Amino acid sequence: MEGETLEGRYQLGEELGRGRHGVVYRANDLQTGTEVAVKRLRTQAQDDPQLPARLFREAQSLASLWGTSVVRVHAFGTDPDGALFLVTELLEGESFEAHLADLELFGDRLSSYNLLTLLDPIARALHTAHAQGIIHRDVKPANLFLISPEQGGGVRILDFGLAQVLGFEALMAENTPGGSPSYVAPEAFRGEPLDHRADVYAFGAVVFRALAGRTPFQGDTLADLALAVTTAPRPELSPLRPDLAPEIDAWAARALAADPNQRYAYIPTLWNDLIRVMMNGKGPSADRVRQTFRLPG
């Protein structure tokens, strides 16, 4: 709580937000005098003796992603009550989820140019992580953060590896069917082993949501959602976005393929194909895409 100091170093300030996984605070690093964010996890070390070790391994692996758009993790520890906490860079701005919700409230959608500009750093960071064998496992708009222009702008990926640390059950329990499970890959619902292609699916679902104003699949219950994600026909974007080239439907079908072997194998392939489709669109936004983005080869 506010005023508490963790490990004699991180003095907690105001609460910034909370979810099923934990509570995030603004904090002051008493050693450096800088402001940081502290995420206090609800899961306690005594509940799972292996949890601190898994968290330490994840924090070590994330250090190799500094310089990308992955949020910087400075430290982690255990508070006097046994709850684990993470110390990260402090970000000012809004989540991509909040940004999309504001647009959708007025019936607006992201233009092709704005979508590519905002998510290009995310695509690059995911590719860098996958090349090092690191999988996010919970890519969704709420875990993408748009930094305010006053803080320099840009975008960050949050909670990298947290789903791996806490387990898939915690991920599924955290949200309603309109939340995180809407971005979970079909093979996860089927109980199959996950690899980087689960992130490919989730990233494709994020793009679909940003363009369509809704998630690719819906369900009144988690079981209904799982059935739709794993067996329903892949949704089309062209009826919702006539400004986009018709090839967007083939892109969505491949990005969201229920069989990971039929899906885009890598983020760069998915992303370059999306840029190509956007270049073939109509209107001022497509013109800006053609002027700004370049494809390899």
UniProtKB/TrEMBL annotation:
Record's keyword terms, sorted: ATP-binding, Kinase, Nucleotide-binding, Serine/threonine-protein kinase, Transferase
Residues annotated to bind ATP: 39
Alphabetized CDD domains for the sequence: STKc_PknB_like
Domain Protein kinase: start-end pairs: 10-275
Domain of life from the UniProt record: Bacteria
SUPFAM superfamilies: Protein kinase-like (PK-like)
Name the UniProt record assigns to this protein: Serine/threonine protein kinase
Organism name: Polyangium fumosum
Gene3D superfamilies tied to this protein: Phosphorylase Kinase, domain 1 (3.30.200.20), Transferase(Phosphotransferase) domain 1 (1.10.510.10)
